[in-house]
Amino acid sequence: MSNTPVQLKNFSQLELENWVQTRGEKAFRGRQLFQWIWQKGVEEFKEMTNLSKSLITELEQNCSLNLSTVHQVQTSATQGTSKFLIRLNDGKFVETVLIPEGSRVTVCLSSQVGCALDCDFCATGKMGLNRNLTSGEIADQLLHVRRFSDCPITNIVFMGMGEPFHNYEPVIRAADILNAKLGFAHGARKITISTSGLVPQIRQFADEGHRYKLAVSLNASDDTSRTQLMPVNKKWNIADLVTACQVYTKASSNMLTFEYVLMAGINDNLGDARRLINIANKVFCKVNVIPYNEVAEDYQRPSKTRINKFLEALEGARFGVTVRWSQGDDIDAACGQLSTVAQLKNENTE
Ligand code: SAH
Ligand code: SF4
């Protein structure tokens, strides 16, 4: 028999029910196990007091709940945002961010170590893809943050490191754990998955009828500049993307969010605003403008005046517009600033 422990956090609730049955237990023991792991967040099998002694012994001998640990937490002096550096069992790192803003407390989860999509303006993109996270590793991030946070978490966004739809199945499985009654019981409409625009997966997401919300990173108003910023646009251009977004909003009746990272001299002129209106008018959506957080030397955040001019130009459009002044830039925890290159380097030289 193999000595590698069974990682129970990578199982869905149903898989746990099936698994305990193969060990001669009733299915409801699997539900209890799921509840101990995610809802109650216990770390030791012996704390699972409603399980039989023999099952606890069996779990201790063959299974593990240890997928990741918190290596470091940095809290912004000015904004209250905390960045968690999480160490995975194989020594790799990801980052998770906790963003308290009044009664709204958002957690930003990572879905991959690095990202393959290589958007020119993004720190994670510069790392390349190291590996996908498992569903357990994704949900574990929320367990760590929940232990740390004084306030209940109200919103969860898949906007940390990685392209969630490049790791589709584990991300959906993780979202299902967040949403499950015996898991984190987090409302589906308060869970948002952000994609750079992988059209087949947007269509799959629509087909499968998930109730989680979708955000799409548009970031440019014409194909030439979008391709320069986001190589993914070579494969699926803005027209393909818009059609897939329409399929999603129709299938789900959910409003979609277009994210538009505003960069000085790149995508912030009045022509861009006009073209953005034309694109977004075709979709049941709102637009979230994100003033650029500086990571790459080639890109800068526009001045306040210019940002306001851009926003004014969007007034009167059919869709709503919000601005996300990212939190946590003093600790590199803002959108697009997540990168664990330094940590990976350290790890490799240990
Ligand atoms: N890969 C997914 C989700 C993670 S990125 C995606 O691209 O949608 C989350 C958001 O941060 C995206 O909208 C992305 O465009 C934005 N972003 C990336 N780098 C940024 C930066 N330097 N400043 C502001 N936003 C950035
Ligand atoms: Fe990947 Fe998103 Fe960064 Fe693009 S913006 S490199 S898709 S994490």
Folded structure, characterized:
- With 350 residues, the protein is of the alpha/beta class.
- The protein has helices at residues 13-22, 27-39, 53-62, 123-127, 135-148, 168-179, 199-207, 223-229, 232-235, 238-252, 270-280, 304-314, 341-349, and strands at 6-7, 63-64, 68-75, 82-88, 93-101, 104-108, 112-114, 129-132, 155-158, 191-195, 213-217, 256-262, 285-291, 320-323.
- The protein folds into two domains: 6-64, DNA polymerase, domain 1; 68-349, Alpha-Beta Barrel (TIM Barrel).
- The longest helix has 15 residues, at 238-252.
- The protein is elongated, with a radius of gyration of 21 Å.
- The relative contact order is 0.12.
- It binds S-adenosyl-L-homocysteine and iron/sulfur cluster.
- Residues 115, 117-119, 122, 124-125, 162-163, 196, 217 line the site of iron/sulfur cluster (SF4).
Task: Please write out the topology.
Layout (H helix, E strand, L loop, with lengths): L5 E2 L5 H10 L4 H13 L13 H10 E2 L3 E8 L6 E7 L4 E9 L2 E5 L3 E3 L8 H5 L1 E4 L2 H14 L6 E4 L9 H12 L11 E5 L3 H9 L5 E5 L5 H7 L2 H4 L2 H15 L3 E7 L7 H11 L4 E7 L12 H11 L5 E4 L17 H9 L1
Parallel strand pairs: 1-2, 6-9, 9-10, 10-11, 11-12, 12-13, 13-14
Antiparallel strand pairs: 3-4, 4-5, 5-6, 7-8
The protein binds S-adenosyl-L-homocysteine (SAH) and iron/sulfur cluster.
